[in-house]
Amino acid sequence: MTHKITTPFTAEVIEKLRAGDNILLSGEIYTARDAAHKRLIEEIPFDPHGQAVYYAGPCPAPPGRPIGSAGPTTSSRMDAYAPQLIAQDLKIMIGKGIRSPEVIAAIKQHGGLYLAAAGGAGALISLCVEECRQVAYEDLGTEAVHLLSIKDMPLTVAIDSKGGNIYDREDKQK
Fold first, then answer.
1. What residue ranges do the domains of the chain occupy?
2. Which CATH number is associated with domain 9-166?
3. How many Å separate Cα 147 from the centre of its chain?
């Protein structure tokens, strides 16, 4: 099943989505990678309620485009920071790869979601970006926090608010 979702996320939307569901996400999302996460745990420079953070460092924009390639970063690199940010109401994360047991526990405890973007598809994902502007940590360059306006970004619910996890499914091939 594919859901069309617009940010900000509501508790009702978070609750109804299940691991394995496909979504087309529109609205606004923030980017943040490792260096930004070290600062985010001190102070989040935006209201995190209902917002999503995309683990990406967008490449510079080519002529005529708002952004260059914008592929997901390996999410486990943010696992040291994610539980604290989830507890501060930043419940939606977008990236690639598995998450630690601590992140999964925080998602379940606080009602969050982890959404998977297709790795290696940064150029295609960038076509969903309509606008990009830097909002914090300019000194970090491409790893600064950016606000992206997106339309129909294809994602899969990797970990749902109940702890359902596509990476731990019993029916996956061995």
1. 9-166
2. 3.20.130.10
3. 12
